[in-house]
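Lab manual, section 2.4: Encoding a predicted structure.

Procedure: take the sequence of the chain (142 residues), apply the prediction step described in section 2.3, and record the output as structure tokens. A sample record is shown.
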Amino acid sequence: MLDVHIDDFYMDVAATLLSGFRYFPRTQTLFIEDISGPDNMDEFGLHSPRHLAALGTLQWLQEEGYIRFSNLSRQESVDDFVLTSKAFTRMIAMADPQSLKGNRIGETDADNTPVFQLLEFARLQEDSTWTGELVKQYFLDL
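Recorded output:
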């Protein structure tokens, strides 16, 4: 198991890409709390480290060419959020049957399961290890 912040990063990547996929190609306002969960600001009005980590994930995804957005609104949301072609094509690609951890989805579906379905299933299972493996395999150019 990796450090918690790396597991959170992989879960944030999955949540961000899946959110963009649900509305593709339409732009949307994406709230950071939709990725990281509720934010607990401190007595000085500063965001929590968890919230800032999710914000960092969005900025990293933009720098790497997976998402686009126009404005960052007070570290709370991004405007005109949309997936890029790079992210969209990776989301709709057919997953490698080896990605089906323990054949949870079923052997008959192994040849025609798109990456976005596998990523959604892993995220809903709250399996950060499997989600991390999928993010590394399909979105990080290792």
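Check your result against the sample. The longest strand covers residues 77-83.
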